[in-house]
Structures are given as C-alpha cells and as structure tokens.
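Look over both lines:
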Amino acid sequence: MIILIQLAFSMSSCFLNTKSSINNDVFHHPFMMKRTERSLDLKFLSGRWKITDQMRSTIEAFVDSYKKNSSTVIFIMLPSPTVSSAAIKSAANDIRSIFISNGIPANSISERLYDANYGLDIDTIRLSYFAARPYIGRQCGLWPNSIIKDNSLNGNWYNYGCAFHHNLLAQIDNPLDLIHPRLETLVDGEMTDKAIDSYYNKGLKK
C-alpha cells in the first residue's frame, strides 16, 4: 500500500513538472517573425531633378538598412502621372547609380509605377523593400485567468516576461540573428600571443 502511494505521488509530481514546463514567459509570449515593408519617400518640386547631398546621405542610410535586414529586391517606385516625367526619370537614374555604387546588384533593383493622382506640384519617389520583423505573439496587459484562483501549480502569471520580451526586441540590431547565427570570426593570433605573453611576464603563471 505504501509503495502504491509513493508511486502515485511520484507520478503526480511528474505531471506537475510537465504542466509547469510550459507555464513560462517563452510559451506565453514567443518571438515570431513577419514580413513587413520598409520605405523612404523622396520629395521633388516641379521641374527639380537633382539629388542633393542631404538626399544622397538619406538614400545611403536607407541602403545600409536594406543590406543589413534584407536580401530581396529593392524597389524604386515612380509616380504616375507626374509633374515632370523627364525630371523624375533623371532622379530615378541617379538613385539607381547610388544603389549600385553602394554594393546593390543591378538585378536586385526594380522600378515600378504607383498611382499618384493628387494634382500637387510635388512628386514623390518611394524607395521600398521587404524585410523580416520580429514581434511578440501575444499582447501585453491581458489577464484571462485569475492569479488567485487559477494558480494551483504555483507558476508564473500570464503577463510574466511580456514587457521584457518587447524591450529585448527593441534592442536587437539585426532581426535575422533570431533565425540563424552569424558566422564565427577567426581567432586573432596576434592578440592571443599578446595575452599569453602578458600572462607569463606578469608572473601570473608559477
């Protein structure tokens, strides 16, 4: 009889451990990825076609973001109709040249038209690409269960870790790091030799 009681108790303990293993912040607030568009709008006055130095810097920063976060096609979206088609086409060619000079292959650049039927004396060229963006699978601040009545397993409450996960995602430089690891760099032999010499010369090794 005692053996049966001990066996039942041990099995119930295993059951509780199994349930509590999924009652954590990773289970309730998982990291997920979705496809999102990133864009940059460049405004051109009527008849103006030259890319200014400030525009060039803005475009180059957009290119850096593209190279870091995406490997898809990058789009140069031209307005149609346009105030000055010749000026817009010239600006598009300049933008394409900036892309190529900053390391984007020509076959990764695509020009498209978009509906710009607004009748203003300002044309807008939109640069766009798609990238993966991490997000939390569930919203914070939800309390579907009572933490007093439904806490028989003595586990974490539903919102536990949600704000932490959101803050962590806000600090991630490259979302692709969540999908696959980066290539390991080679060991710096010179720095290794210096560290070993310092270790011996300071008498740390006896």
